[in-house]
Amino acid sequence: MNLFYQPLIPQGISYLDADESRHCVKVLRHTVGDTLRITDGHGFFYDAVITKADDRQCTFRIAEKIAQPLRNFTVHIAISPTKNADRIEWFVEKAVEFGVDTISIVECENTERTYLKKERLEKVAISAMKQSLKATLPRIEGLLPFQDILGSNATQKFIAYVDQQNPDHLKNMATAGKDYVVLIGPEGDFSLDELNAALQNGFKKVSLGPSRLRTETAGLAACHILNLINN
């Protein structure tokens, strides 16, 4: 099944944009009368019937609106951008596939990359949402100062910190059915000042296992763990 994206369906828009129309009509060879599955990225799928197979603006009528079942937990990963932009894009893609609600790109003291193409990350997220057949597009925030994340109102707040004296694994500290935020630091890790600031704001220091992980791997591991304990 191919999933198409039109975020403005709730506002009455009943056509695909140019890129989606081209893929639908030129690549997949859909024509008038064919049924499409579309998402608005806001939690709903739509079964729609093509009324005009134009590769510049493919129009449709809605036959059925279907709500994606709500989860009883949310996952927010706040992660430092990697020096190599491809790695943070890989993280966004895979985190969306696993299931993430918010991704915040956070500038820390040891962050090496301070320029970010948010629009590019949003396109990666849209593609991953469609690939994994999800109806909700995660929110992407950034580039944010580290201090902005500390005021999160998540019910469980964690900071993944490379510390051999840290025996508390995320899988044992997180409780199912909660709203989570996990801070993932840069390759040089969080500074002690950042760690202490997080702890003072209700974050708990956690381990992601005995191996030293790359930033993007750590972010994906945290996302996967939180999804697993809720299944």
From TrEMBL:
Annotated signal sequence range: none
Main location: cytoplasm
E.C. code: 2.1.1.193
Keyword Kinase in annotation: no
Listed Gene3D superfamilies: 3.40.1280.10, Hypothetical PUA domain-like, domain 1
Cell compartment(s), UniProt: Cytoplasm
Domain Ribosomal RNA small subunit methyltransferase E methyltransferase: 72-226
Chemical reaction(s) catalysed: uridine(1498) in 16S rRNA + S-adenosyl-L-methionine = N(3)-methyluridine(1498) in 16S rRNA + S-adenosyl-L-homocysteine + H(+)
Annotated GO biological process: methylation
InterPro entries according to UniProt: Alpha/beta_knot_MTases, PUA-like_sf, RsmE, RsmE_MTase_dom, RsmE_PUA-like, tRNA_m1G_MTases_N
Annotated GO MF terms: methyltransferase activity
Tagged with keyword Nuclease: no
Swiss-Prot/TrEMBL keywords: Cytoplasm, Methyltransferase, rRNA processing, S-adenosyl-L-methionine, Transferase
One Pfam family here: Methyltrans_RNA
Leading EC class: transferase
The Ribosomal RNA small subunit methyltransferase E PUA-like domain, residue ranges: 16-62
Family: Belongs to the RNA methyltransferase RsmE family.
Its job: Specifically methylates the N3 position of the uracil ring of uridine 1498 (m3U1498) in 16S rRNA. Acts on the fully assembled 30S ribosomal subunit.
Name of this chain's protein: Ribosomal RNA small subunit methyltransferase E
Organism of this sequence: Ohtaekwangia kribbensis
